[in-house]
Amino acid sequence: MMSTISVKSNAQAAVKKNVIPVIDCDVHPNPRSYEDLNPYLSDYWRDFLTDCKWKGVFPGIPIMAIVANAGHRMDSIPPEGGLGCSSVSFFKEQVTDRYNYANAILFPDSTFMLSASPQHEMATAVASAYNDWQIEHWLSKDSSFRGSVVIASQDPVEAAREIDRVGSHPQMVQVGLSIHSPYGGWGDKRYHPIWEAAVRNGLVCTFHVSVPGGLFRPGPVLGNYYPEGQTNNGLTYQAQINSIIFGGVLEKYQELRMVFVEGGFAWLPNLMYTMDTHWRNLRREVPWVKRPPSQQVREHMWFGTQPFIEPERHEDEEHVLQIIKMIGTNKILFASDYPHWEFDAPHVALAKLPKDIREQILYKNAMELFGLPDPMKSENN
Amino acid sequence: MMSTISVKSNAQAAVKKNVIPVIDCDVHPNPRSYEDLNPYLSDYWRDFLTDCKWKGVFPGIPIMAIVANAGHRMDSIPPEGGLGCSSVSFFKEQVTDRYNYANAILFPDSTFMLSASPQHEMATAVASAYNDWQIEHWLSKDSSFRGSVVIASQDPVEAAREIDRVGSHPQMVQVGLSIHSPYGGWGDKRYHPIWEAAVRNGLVCTFHVSVPGGLFRPGPVLGNYYPEGQTNNGLTYQAQINSIIFGGVLEKYQELRMVFVEGGFAWLPNLMYTMDTHWRNLRREVPWVKRPPSQQVREHMWFGTQPFIEPERHEDEEHVLQIIKMIGTNKILFASDYPHWEFDAPHVALAKLPKDIREQILYKNAMELFGLPDPMKSENN
């Protein structure tokens, strides 16, 4: 189905040249309700999900009582009702126009939780429905939007088939994954079909924060409190990058590029140098790891800003810039997490950084990684 | 039993004033064989362990084939045989005299694994035997040695009783714990009796790296390879500090001081600032946490050097000093891990740091924390 919206109305064309444009790498559209997915499901799965009163993919509710409105910004509900971020026009009014967006990279809300389900056939069917819904209701409505191929990674062969089915859509730029893996770590051989399909379709692999439960295991301690659990999110990222590096994934798939959003980034210097130390001492045990781990991180991985570290003491603020420079100013991508409550307004979150680094983080790094047009040179302006 | 060794022979008296002295916060003595513990066990437990051919506390073997000699330096076996670091005189010859030690803080090898055992009565009995053995065979042999109260933390009430039994020994300076907790996180209320006993006896609580298995749970990914597992060790430290802070332990026990050895330290800036961020946003959920998390870390916690981060690229070496300064040069303690293979020779590991910071890390910080005499002003010299 073709979009009926003209080029003039898309966010990219509206970019103001006197304000730094934004490429947001973490936006979570929702259907108005889960019934919107029905047209994209087979009769079998539509009846099955309807009969069992499926509650959708939103995570966490059964485990903990978390912040108000199940984590959605109260004001992200469109005037006509429905879930947060379930209206293209309201999203553009509330976010893309207000903050001078060039592009928004969409990752349908909480679909990374599909990979936690032991019902892998159901998860595979729902992932596929989400992709068709995403293309018809979002990507085709605005040419500045970019999409994520939703997959059920507990069946890597089916996941690869889904990547091949929709990954060639011109607005699809990444495969959307959970930072938790359903079995073993992301470095395990079982996931190779996913990386192969991503490389074959020229897609980045993007890992998003998720919640333990189902097939996803918690860390060494299951946090008792929400701020404790939020702080623990970064641990899973560290363990998975460690698994990917020592599993040899990036030696086998040298074209693979990975993005890690909503798990922070300030743990990266320690992780790189600790992996380097142990690799030097113990490389006899992993002879397939040829390049130093830190080099592999620098060549293959990018990181979202969310959550941004904010030291409590004024005298510690310089540490933020020091840490960003250790990682590389070209490795960090702006990620708002809209419509979730942690939303970072782009020009507020990075206000204390120098302008050249803000430009890199707000749009230049993502523009280069995803091959997007330069919003400052757009022909539409 | 009183020591028969004169004051003149202790390591402290032998400190050379022209070389920076060393206080080593991580030395692991072993019995020559586990039968050495028999005199300190009741008839019941001696017969029980003998009959079931108990293999001792050394961890890891059933889970992974790790480095040569089960992780002990090959040259740490005394000439007369036995386990690594099982002879006081050989330890002094190989380590304390050679590296100009003022003090060695002992933590009987792998006894932190006792807390992983579901047989908590057995673990409690063995912990107690280790303490009596440690006092008789090590502490009483050299007045420069300091000891750790070994406990079985899966029974916190019995553990507190053991701390009260031997914690007042003049050379006991800390309670020895595993970074893995047997149930829940270290922030759980169940462990309050341990912290109370530590404060009551004026002891630091020191957490040492351990191995998942038994009651200890692994992280979100159980690493497939040894360098991957070594890198994952730091994740458990981060999760446990997070649990301690948000559980309110340091608000309730304001005199408590904690040391974290063999889990690294370079992840700390990220952890402090991430906890601060989430505490500011979500403190309604943890009203008992009054002080910012980073302030609690700075007031209550110290960190061992082992493993020291070693960046692969020459141009990244300045990051090590930057990170140490973020944490505070007064918070890091030298830890060799003798007789384990990761042993860091004190003057090599820190060679690239400025002299004033090397002095802080090699002895001054530990001297202040543990209330040890200043080796440069020793009356014996």
- Percent of residues of chain A in beta strands? 5-15%
- The third-level CATH topology of chain A is TIM Barrel
Question: Assembly type of the shown chains?
Answer: homodimer
- Which protein chains make the most extensive interface, counting residues with beta carbons within 8 Å of the other chain's beta carbons? A-B, 74 and 74 residues
Helix content class of chain A: 25-40%
- Shape descriptor of chain A reads globular
Task: Please count the helical segments of chain A.
Answer: 12
Q: Give a quick account of the main beta sheet of chain A: strands, pairing sense, barrel closure.
A: 8 strands, parallel
Spell out the CATH superfamily of chain A.
Answer: Metal-dependent hydrolases
CATH architecture designation of chain A: Alpha-Beta Barrel
Q: How many structural domains of chain A? A: 1
Keywords (chains A, B): Lyase
Protein name (chains A, B): Amidohydrolase family protein
Domain Amidohydrolase-related (chains A, B): 120-372
Organism (chains A, B): Niallia oryzisoli
Describe the structure.
Two copies of one chain form a homodimer. With 381 residues, the first copy, chain A, is an alpha/beta fold. Chain A has one domain (4-380): TIM Barrel. The first copy, chain A, contains twelve helices and eight strands. Chain A has helices at 43-51, 88-96, 120-137, 156-166, 192-200, 226-246, 249-252, 268-282, 293-300, 318-327, 346-349, 355-370; strands at residues 22-27, 101-106, 145-150, 172-178, 204-208, 258-261, 301-304, 332-333. Chain A has an eight-stranded parallel beta sheet with strand order 1-2-3-4-5-6-7-8, with helices on both faces. In chain A, strand 7, helix 10 (318-327) and strand 8 form a beta-alpha-beta unit. In chain A, helix 4 runs parallel beside helix 5 (192-200). The longest helix of chain A is centred in the middle third of the chain and has 21 residues, at 226-246. The radius of gyration of chain A is 20 Å and the shape is globular. The two termini of chain A are 27 Å apart. In chain A, 57% of the residues are buried. The interface between A and B is large, with 74 and 74 residues. Chains A, B: InterPro entries: ACMSD, Amidohydro-rel, Metal_Hydrolase. Chains A, B: This is Amidohydrolase family protein.
